[in-house]
Structures are given as structure tokens and as C-alpha cells.
Write a structure and sequence with these properties.
This protein has about 220 residues and is an alpha+beta fold. It contains seven helices and eleven strands. α4 (about 145-155) crosses α5 (about 170-175) and α5 packs across α6. The longest helix is centred in the C-terminal third of the chain and has 15 residues, at about 200-215.
Length: about 220
Amino acid sequence: MNDPRPPSAPELKAQIEAEREGRPFLVFRDGEDRQEIVAVAPGASELWVGRGESADLRLHWDEEVSSLHAQIEVVRDECTLVDDGLSRNGSFVNEERVHGRRHLRDGDTIRFGRTAVRYRRPNTDGGAEETAIATETPAAALISPAQRKVLLVLCRPYKDGAGFATPATNQEIGTALHLSVDAVKTHMRALFERLGVGDLPQNQKRVALVERALQSGVVNSREL
């Protein structure tokens, strides 16, 4: 499967900018491993997924994707994946095959052939945001208040979507929170494990941690 690797800083910036538009969007990597973002346009009623030229989300490099593979039905800002046997190899949401219809939720991973597509539906109103806070994610529940402060400072360079932003260094975090660098490192090691990036190469962990924190809702871009 063409599973998305952690995004680079410019790619993460593009995702944050798409989130700020407030529209549902799909993010994936093309056949040359470049990030692509397809937003659901206002007023759109459907998006067709496939390898053919008529597809709105065209995955032409993936030979396991049918010419017209599946449909994403749009009602206001809610999206539903529809696959009624149109495709030969099926469609999957979080690795569960879809038979008929599947309502999509923010953060779901859809797989068409070998291509993984992340579905994002940013919160656009106060009510939705309150609901997300009330139903805290398991990762958020495991993070201590002190670790969350470290995570917020780590992510803060991405607040304004600055080009080529990089996560805050341990020294910068320590200065902001009046902590020693060793204390920051201890919190960072715990955060790597809590958000599931501990097994990544060292030079990828910090960017991946920012991505997981923002995409999972542990940190909201409005808090930065």
C-alpha cells in the first residue's frame, strides 16, 4: 500500500492552510511521492474516484484502482464513501472493506488499490469544536498537562502557516516553559511513545509528532 509517510514542513504547512479554509479535504501522495490535496468545493454533491480521466480524484498511477472506482457523496459538509461493487478490488476505510456506504469521519484513512488517502473535515464552528474536546482521543487522555504544554510549544511555529516552519527545538521549549533541556527531552520521549512515532528515524520524529498532534485533534491549530 502507498501509505503516506510523515509530511515535510512545507507539506504540513499546506495541510494546515487547507484546514483553515474550513472545507473537507483529501490528502494523499501521488505516484512520485508528492503530496496532493483535493478540497471539496462549496456546493459539490459528489467526487468520483478512479484511474480514468473522468475521475475528480484521479489515481492514474495505481493499477489496482478501477477506471471509476468509488464515489464520495457530499451533503453539506458531510462526506460518505459509496462503493456498491463498482470497483474490482474494493475500497477500505481504516482497513475495513466498504460494502455499500460508509460515513467518513475526520482522520479516517481510505484505501483505493495501493493508495492511502487521508480524509480531513476541519471543525468550522464552536459546537463542533466543543464536541471534539468532550470526546477526548485516547492519545490525549494519556498526555499529562506538563507534556501538553511541551507539545503546544513544539507545534507553535506552525501557527501562522509560515513557509518552511520547523518544530521548536528543545532549547526553545525549555526557555518558553522555564524547563531544563533534560526535562524537555524526558517529556519529548514520552510524547513520541504516546502519539506512536517512537519507532521512526530520529530526524523524522519531531515533524511526525507535530503532524499527529494536529491531525488527531490533541492540539488544535487555534490554540497555538
